[in-house]
Amino acid sequence: MVIAGDDKGKTGEVLAVYPKKRKVLVKGINRVYKHLRPSRSHPQGGRVQKEMPIDISNVLPIDPKTGQPTRVGFRITPDGKKERYAKKSGETLSVLYDRNKLRSKKEE
Q1: Cβ atoms of residues 74 and 83 within 8 Å
Q2: What's the whole-model pTM score?
Q3: Under a CB-based contact definition with an 8 Å cutoff, are residues 72 and 86 in contact?
Q4: End-to-end CA distance of the chain
Q5: Looking at the predicted structure, is the pLDDT value of residue 103 above 80?
Q6: What is the pLDDT of residues 64-94, one digit of tens each?
Q7: Which domains does the chain have, with CATH numbers?
């Protein structure tokens, strides 16, 4: 969910993440018009609408339990998995890696 800017309150699917630039590309958000000069590939020319990246600080993930925007925390579960979780409900968002598997690879 977008929390700031012209598209505040809108939700969309994250298409790409650019960590070095601290930007995300969200489907249907921050749409702009690119004006095209007539050429061989576009003989008519015209305007093409496309999404532009927005700053990562203006986006929050949606809590799967409540459907509201939430901040993200990290925790290590008792079985050794590091995961991202929703701060509002405590629901798991994604598992990043299993620490036990990393240890077994280092020992080999």
Answers
A1: yes
A2: 0.72
A3: yes
A4: 43
A5: no
A6: 888 889 999 999 888 888 888 999 888 888 8
A7: 1-59 (2.30.30.30), 60-108 (no CATH)
